[in-house]
Amino acid sequence: MLAALALLAIAGACGRKEEEPAPAAGGAAAGTPFDPATGTATVGGRVAFEGTPAAAAQIKMTADPVCMSLHKEPVYSEQVLVSDGKLQNVFVYVKEGLEKYSFTPPAQPATITQEGCHYIPHVGGMMVNQKLKITNGDGTLHNIHCWAEKNKQFNFAQPVKGQENEQVFRTTEVMVPFRCDVHKWMSCFVGVLPHPYYSVTGKDGSFTLKNLPPGDYVIEAWHEKYGTQTQKVTVADKDTKEISFTFKAT
Ligand SMILES: [Cu+2]
After folding, report:
1. Residue 11 has pLDDT above 70, yes or no
2. Ligand 1 geometric centre to CA of 229 (Å)
3. 165 CA distance to ligand 1 centroid (A)?
4. Above 80 in pLDDT, residue 29?
5. Left if phi > 0, otherwise alpha if psi is -120 to 50, otherwise beta: which for 33?
6. Based on the structure, what is the number of domains in the chain?
């Protein structure tokens, strides 16, 4: 049974590449449309961290007095955030198992806001063909430089507070890095998926992937410093399965 499913999955993956050269929807648009509102399975869990994480580096904003003036307290790197043995800012998503479906991107845009000379969120997710709204919330010049590898890169300035620009990604990419060319400490990551099943761990390390169709899934957890881990999970309708990931200090 599992072997048959695996063969089907492989056949699906190969067919996708050969039969659908168009980049639209990351190669998943040919599947059966699935409305997440009708999905009843859930995969949730936590991302733990073992060992002592390196102390977060303090960010020095001396290069821009406007950025400096926006912070009264010291500001630290968000690269590794561990509290009570739980790892924050881990992007957890369905890597495999949804190939036979297609999903409509939400009308609501995903957002990246630059505030206090930081990107908010530091790690986020969105769908292929969903709009990404990028806003400058600061009274200083930011230059958004997108370092995508599978999607088109872009690089533009936002000199004015309140300025908004929209971008769209046409294919799946985990993760797309963004950096600011003016403020070297500014970086963030966005996972672009052909489906809406992703979650970013908060302070408690928890994640939830709700409204899944039943199926066999490969779930991947991505962290910008500690890399990726995957796990397999099978859910039936109305199932809730718990899985956990553990990253270790290097
Ligand atoms: Cu900037």
Report:
1. no
2. 31
3. 15
4. no
5. beta
6. 1
Distance, in Å, from the CA atom of 76 to the CA atom of 226, rounded to the nearest integer, reads 18
Collapsing DSSP to helix, strand or coil, 157 comes out as strand
Torsional sign, CA 141, 172, 36, 29: positive
Domain that holds residue 110: 2-248
Q: How close is the Cα of 186 to the center of ligand 1, in Å?
A: 6
Say how many Å lie between the CA of residue 167 and the centre of ligand 1: 18
| Cα 143 to ligand 1 centroid, rounded to whole Å | 6
Q: Fill in the DSSP letter of residue 27.
A: G
Q: Residue 210: which residues within 8 A CB-CB, separation 6 or more?
A: 39, 42
Please give the structure tokens belonging to residue 139.
Answer: 């009274």
Residue 160 has pLDDT above 80, yes or no: yes
What's the 69 CA to ligand 1 centre distance in angstroms? 14
CB atoms within 10 A of CB 111: 15
Q: State in Å: Cα 101 to ligand 1 middle.
A: 39
Q: How many CA atoms lie within 13 A of 124 on its CB side?
A: 17
Q: What are phi and psi of 125, to 5 degrees?
A: -140, 160
Q: What is the CATH number of the domain that holds 12?
A: 2.60.40.420
Question: Encoding tokens for residue 224?
Answer: 């910008």
pLDDT of residue 152 exceeding 80: yes
The neighbouring-strand residues paired with 45 are: 207, 243
